Amino acid sequence: MTQKANILLVDDRDENLIALEAALTSLDQNLVRANSGEEALKHLLGTDFAVILLDVIMPGMDGYETAAHIKQREKTKDVPIIFLTAQEVDRHQVFRGYSSRAVDFLIKPFDPWVLRSKVEVFVELHQLKAQMREQARSLQRVLGQETGEPGRDLAEQLAQRSRQVQSDLASLREHIVDNYQEVDQPLVDAVRRVDRAASRLSTLVDTLHGPEE
């Protein structure tokens, strides 16, 4: 039986959280509320989330700052973030969101069907990744029995290459944000595609290298 995924809803206004819950209830997943960036970070300390819906404009720690903290943590750096904003997103906001590795922006008032469809994709990916980790235990045993040390060495080499790709992409994202006025949108879109591909590769490599205990 597939375990329910956790979805983190972050907004300083209760009425907005109620609207998010109403839109997502039919997915039958665990919906977790947070009224601030600080509260969201506390939830992330002990709970694994499939996706985060994060309000941009909040008192104190805003959505961009909260996202930056999330992506700095090793445990949560790969959790997808969808920014929610009540205002039109300008070019600078897009690049701020991009620097935080947000996967999307949604403008309030949002279409419940669109929101639900986007979140459902990340829930399915999260559950698939959990299944892959479970299967990785038997795969790791096969690697150890059939290939021995060479197989483990290959897995480690792939993991190192994957980390280097992620590091290079991080540097490229910083360059784009620092020079956003001169950067063409096609380049941004291309880097996003590479980023998504690298994330999928990282998941596969992590599975091959061995599941976290």
Automatic annotation (TrEMBL):
SMART domains: REC. Residues 6-123 form the Response regulatory domain. It comes from the Bacteria. InterPro entries: Bact_response_regulator, CheY-like_superfamily, Sig_transdc_resp-reg_receiver. The modification 4-aspartylphosphate is found at D55. It holds the Pfam family Response_reg. Keywords: Phosphoprotein. Signal peptide: none annotated. PANTHER family: RESPONSE REGULATORY DOMAIN-CONTAINING PROTEIN, STRESS RESPONSE REGULATOR PROTEIN 1. This is Response regulator RpfG family c-di-GMP phosphodiesterase.
